[in-house]
Amino acid sequence: MIKIGIVAEYSATYEPHVATSRAIEHSSEELGLAVSYEWISTVDVKEDFFDVYDGLWVAPGSPYKSMDKALWAIQSAREQGIPTLGTCGGFQHVMIEYARNLLGFEDAQHAEYDPYASRLFISQLACSLAGRALELLLAPNSRIAEIYGSRKVKERYYCNFAVNPEFIEPIRKGPIAITGSDAEGEVRVVEYPDHPFFIATLFVPQTLSKPNKPHPLVTAFLRAVSNTSRGD
Hints:
Number of strands: 12
Shape: globular
Strand order of the largest sheet: 2-1-3-4-12-11-10-7-8
Oligomer: single chain
Helix content: 25-40%
């Protein structure tokens, strides 16, 4: 049995949340894996989180009740080699954690929490992506391109915030790899190449998962959790 901790403020009426649970079920059935998952509010993230859970999924639905605890979970998973998937709001917080702890921008902020902050690594989109399905190009030899088996894919979005283009160059100087971009070259996927599994996407792959066709990214995430799990 592998255990997934899904960090977000769960709502049974929010499609990406319902889709997240279903996607895990679809992929676990395809893999023949016994998987349990639990939704944890950010305010309930505790220091023993990774004593309980084998994998971390930072899900959509920000602003979170506790940005600090969400960032702690992301940092801990990154440092401890815990398989991690971040989607939509999860992607945005992965970028904030990266900016603060690896790039040295301690005041890096998210516009959803503080729109007037001086260093907005995550800014509001001029044109919302919510409800849109768009094509993107994946980097050659990237883990995500290998997972999809293609460099061109089409995915759905639910977001109004994204990486501020002003910080693309500093982002490229650190250990994270930008491995997915849209037609305008905006950052849509990042990953840590030297991590067992750490991928974050601005899009929401789980919404395209189906019982007879699980999403390959979710399947790859569960497989990575299984490969690194310490077991019960």
